[in-house]
């Protein structure tokens, strides 16, 4: 009978990393997950595989000058830690350690496992317009060659080898319902055996209980993910005072099994949850026309050129009105209308150059590591195939040759007030006038010109500046944008060894947490805002810390 030294709850990326690190140090590891083996790697599998790195060779080759000081300035400006005496006390320490690792050690750690990046570095969350405020000052978004599946593979491969060697055992369709606590220490888990279900990856699975189980070990590492598909829990914790009313229409960027159950279970065992009101939902969500899970949403990763209007037809203002610049700032403007959606208005030239879609399955060229396919799809005329499919089949897209026709079709799919074509035209014409010169007072146009100073953006990411109503760049395209759930920024408070802390700040013996369930470390390493490329990295960094810590305590 397999007798583990460590039980890992969750077979996502953080769990695999923790198991890998613990196994390297001689531990026998049992990995439990409520889903089947097809879901190995969890949400990371569906990701674009972006990783936050600082002063990397990829950046330097693209002419980007980055440094630890600049990255830490950006992280602090984005996190805006304001609970340092309590809820942010450990998250801020995790943040400093993580940014240092991103500048020195992270890339080499991954390279030793076989990681490589696409040579073009992306510029995500460009910021609010202040050097000391939110945002990345330079491009730092390194897309993994092979996207999320490749990141998962880096750690799944050695863990599966350890399984074949008898050092790791998986318990799929095992749902943990309780942590076993004896004499103040966590000594194992107990839960329900779920009925076998051979559903494909990501598909919502059966919750029929056919038995129970118990597993004991000297350490338990909780790596169960966040609350992204638990809309009720998200709305309960939604920061209405800071962001605006919780959206009534919410679509899901994560599968149904991302339910947040283990947060409450760990809290009952004494673990402390902090920063419950911090979460990372996106404003650029579109309904997947070919869904895998319920309410399946895809995020548009936009370049800066689409014009952005709220539900009332008013153009979003400032840097948060620039697509891809300031997610939370845009959220505030959108929700302030009393509605939970907004609009992009753009041209065919913009969609061809600037629309990317989140998700490994939406980027088959990168995911399949096919160089010839990559060149064909990214440099050929026309939008990439997955983008064109959404344009043709997606319920959030409308296309027309004239603005009048476009607005009429936008009004055909509105969930709120009808848009006034004359008012939309007035705002578009005003911005179009700003395109006659290489200088401007329009913030968005400034950002477009600045973005094209980046070699990556000019080559493959930002369209040549042009007027929206210039028919040579048509047809016109309208996109209804919905709020999309994604990541939990708060979670179980942990020290730098990933030990879960109790209400008094003491480490609970035998209990560790890593990944999204721990706010990616400390209960909130990101603070209020994420700089992107930091979610997978946070799973890796905190899982690494947990796996090493359980080994060191033996």
TrEMBL record:
Record has Oxidoreductase as a keyword: yes
Alphabetized Gene3D superfamilies for the sequence: FAD/NAD(P)-binding domain, Succinate dehydrogenase/fumarate reductase flavoprotein, catalytic domain
Entry keyword set: Flavoprotein, Oxidoreductase
An example Gene Ontology molecular-function term: steroid dehydrogenase activity, acting on the CH-CH group of donors
A Pfam family the protein falls into: FAD_binding_2
Keyword Flavoprotein: yes
Domain named FAD-dependent oxidoreductase 2 FAD-binding: residues: 5-536
Cross-referenced NCBIfam families: PRK12834.1
PANTHER family to which the protein is assigned, alphabetical: 3-KETOSTEROID-DELTA-1-DEHYDROGENASE, KSDD-LIKE STEROID DEHYDROGENASE RV0785
Name of the protein described by the UniProt record: FAD-binding dehydrogenase
């Amino acid at each position: 009978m397999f007798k583990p030294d460590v039980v890992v709850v969750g077979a996502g990326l953080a769990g695999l990393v923790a198991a890998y690190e613990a196994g390297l140090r001689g531990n026998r590891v049992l990995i439990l997950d409520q889903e089947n083996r097809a879901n190995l790697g969890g949400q990371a599998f569906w990701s674009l595989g972006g990783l936050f790195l600082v002063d990397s060779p990829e950046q330097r080759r693209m002419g980007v000058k980055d440094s630890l000081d600049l990255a830490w300035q950006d992280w602090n400006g984005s996190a805006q830690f304001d609970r340092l005496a309590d809820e942010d006390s450990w998250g801020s320490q995790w943040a400093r350690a993580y940014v240092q690792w991103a500048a020195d050690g992270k890339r080499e750690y991954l390279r030793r496992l076989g990681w490589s990046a696409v040579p073009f570095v992306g510029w995500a969350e460009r910021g609010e317009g202040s050097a000391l405020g939110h945002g990345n000052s330079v491009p730092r978004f390194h897309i993994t060659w092979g996207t999320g599946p490749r990141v998962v593979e880096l750690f799944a491969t050695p863990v599966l080898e350890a399984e074949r060697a008898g050092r790791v055992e998986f318990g799929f369709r095992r749902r943990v319902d309780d942590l076993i606590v004896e004499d103040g220490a966590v000594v194992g888990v107990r839960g329900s055996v779920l009925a076998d279900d051979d559903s494909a990856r990501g598909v919502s699975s059966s919750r029929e209980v056919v038995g129970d189980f118990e597993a004991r070990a000297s350490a338990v590492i909780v790596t169960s993910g966040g609350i992204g598909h638990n809309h009720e829990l998200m709305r309960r914790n939604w920061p209405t005072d800071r962001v605006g009313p919780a959206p009534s229409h919410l679509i899901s960027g994560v599968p149904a099994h991302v339910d947040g159950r283990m947060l409450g279970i760990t809290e009952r065992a004494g673990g402390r949850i902090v920063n419950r009101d911090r979460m990372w939902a996106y404003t650029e969500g579109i309904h997947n026309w070919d869904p895998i899970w319920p309410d399946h949403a895809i995020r548009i990763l936009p370049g800066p050129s689409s014009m952005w209007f709220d539900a009332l037809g008013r153009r979003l203002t400032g840097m948060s009105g620039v697509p891809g610049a300031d997610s939370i700032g845009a959220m505030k403007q959108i929700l302030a209308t009393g509605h939970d959606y907004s609009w992009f208005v753009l041209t065919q030239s913009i969609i061809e150059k600037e629309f990317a879609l989140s998700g490994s399955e939406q980027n088959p060229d990168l995911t399949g590591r096919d160089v010839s396919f990559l060149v064909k799809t990214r440099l050929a005329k026309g939008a990439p195939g997955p983008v064109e499919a959404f344009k043709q089949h997606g319920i959030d897209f409308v296309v027309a040759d004239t603005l009048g026709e476009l607005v009429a079709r936008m009004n055909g799919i509105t969930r709120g007030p009808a848009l006034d074509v004359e008012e939309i035209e007035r705002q578009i014409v005003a911005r179009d006038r700003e395109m006659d010169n290489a200088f401007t007072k329009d913030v968005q146009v400034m950002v477009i010109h600045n973005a094209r100073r980046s070699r990556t953006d000019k080559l493959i990411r930002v369209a040549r500046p042009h007027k929206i109503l210039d028919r040579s760049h048509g047809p016109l395209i309208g996109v209804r944008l919905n709020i999309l759930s994604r990541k939990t920024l708060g979670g179980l408070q942990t020290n730098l060894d990933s030990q879960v802390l109790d209400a008094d700040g003491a480490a609970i013996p035998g209990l560790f947490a890593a990944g999204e369930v721990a706010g990616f470390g400390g209960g909130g390493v990101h603070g209020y805002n994420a700089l992107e490329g930091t979610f997978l990295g946070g799973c890796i960094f905190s899982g690494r810390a947990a796996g090493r810590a359980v080994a060191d305590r033996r």
